[in-house]
Amino acid sequence: MKYLVIIEKSDTGYSAYSPDLPGCVSTGATREETELNMQEAIEFHLEGMRSEGYEIPKPNSTSAYVEA
């Protein structure tokens, strides 16, 4: 499954989250590090959900750019 990940620049680096996985977040000094950290965070998050017996949410979010 592929989950949408939002990456935002911060004062100290980058932060990321997935709209389809509430509470699953990560940070990093670079965009690349943040993406890798988020991959690990998603795997860990899903593993925890499985072990607790929660249903794994299907990816549902999409993105689009709007010109203004």
Report on this structure.
With 68 residues, this protein is an alpha+beta fold. The chain has one helix spanning 31-51; strands at 6-9, 14-17, 25-28. It is built from one helix and three strands; from the N terminus they run E-E-E-H. Strand 1 (6-9) and strand 2 form a beta hairpin. It is flat. The model has no long low-confidence stretch (mean pLDDT 97).
What's the overall average pLDDT, rounded? Answer: 97
Shape: flat
In terms of DSSP E residues, the strand content is: 15-25%
Structure annotation, total helices: 1
Strand order in the largest sheet: 1-2-3
Distance between the termini: 32 Å
Low-confidence sequence ranges: none
- By secondary-structure content and strand pairing, the structural class works out as alpha+beta
H/E topology pattern: EEEH
- Helical residues, percent: 25-40%
Secondary structure: number of strands: 3
Q: Main sheet, how many strands, which sense, barrel?
A: 3 strands, antiparallel
User: What is the C-alpha radius of gyration, as a whole number of Å?
Assistant: 13 Å
Question: How would the blueprint of this fold be written?
Answer:
Elements: E1 6-9, E2 14-17, E3 25-28, H1 31-51
Antiparallel strand pairs: 1-2, 2-3
Quick summary of this structure?
Helices cover about 30% and strands about 20% of the residues.
Kindly list the characteristics that best describe this protein:
3-stranded antiparallel beta sheet; 18% strand; 68 residues; single chain; alpha+beta
